[in-house]
Design brief:
Blueprint: E1 6-11, E2 21-24, E3 32-39, E4 42-43, E5 51-58, E6 61-71, E7 76-80, E8 90-100, E9 103-106, E10 110-115, H1 132-156, H2 164-173, H3 179-182
Parallel strand pairs: 1-3, 2-10
Antiparallel strand pairs: 3-4, 3-7, 5-6, 5-8, 6-7, 8-9, 8-10
Length: 184
């Protein structure tokens, strides 16, 4: 799956916030930003010996301090929005730092609106009747497990059975559990 990268230009000598970008809570391995850097309006030329770091926070909580890919050919820093960066809905505040030896220069701040996912508690899916098909499959799976346990019990106790009527009585008592035997 390939999702188009978002593109922005940031100036190393500007401190105003950039236009708000968008991403979706819970996305994984598909959200990237191609960053072009300027220095007082002029292209900032990236070098092979540079290291690029994205710093990200959401409501004051650090969400990323990650190394970024530097695309020398296209003179861009490629920022991946990681699982951790996108795990919380809200405004993700970011900046890019370029490091060379002991020198560091940091871009202006940019923001990403991490849109709330429709379902944030995936474990809650199994508890909701809204997910009818999934719930039905889970119920069917539980029924099959019960039926298998019942058959296993019969097989384990087969040697102690002295009368076929004992098995028939057990089947009658558990007729719902062994409905698959009579469906054929």
């Amino acid at each position: 799956m390939e999702v188009k990268h978002q593109e922005i230009t940031l100036d190393l000598n500007d401190n105003r916030n950039y236009t708000l970008l968008k991403a979706h809570q819970g996305d994984r391995g598909t959200r990237f930003i191609d960053v072009s850097l300027k220095h007082s309006g002029e292209d900032f030329i990236l070098q092979e010996n540079y290291t690029a770091i994205v710093k990200a926070s959401n409501n004051g909580v650090t969400k990323g301090l990650n190394q970024c890919e530097i695309d020398i050919e296209n003179n861009k820093v490629i920022v991946e929005l990681t699982d951790t960066m996108l795990d919380t809905a809200g405004v993700l505040t970011c900046e890019i730092s370029i490091l060379e030896n002991r020198q560091i220069v940091t871009s202006q701040i940019f923001s990403i609106n991490v849109v709330l996912s429709a379902v944030t508690d995936e474990e809650g899916i199994t508890e909701s009747e809204v997910y009818g098909y999934l719930v039905e499959l889970l119920k069917k799976n539980a029924e099959i497990a019960d039926e298998a346990k019942f058959i296993e019990d019969i097989i384990e106790n087969f040697g102690t059975v002295t009368d076929v009527s004992q098995i028939l009585e057990q089947v009658r008592l558990n007729s719902q559990s062994v409905s698959f035997l009579t469906e054929k």
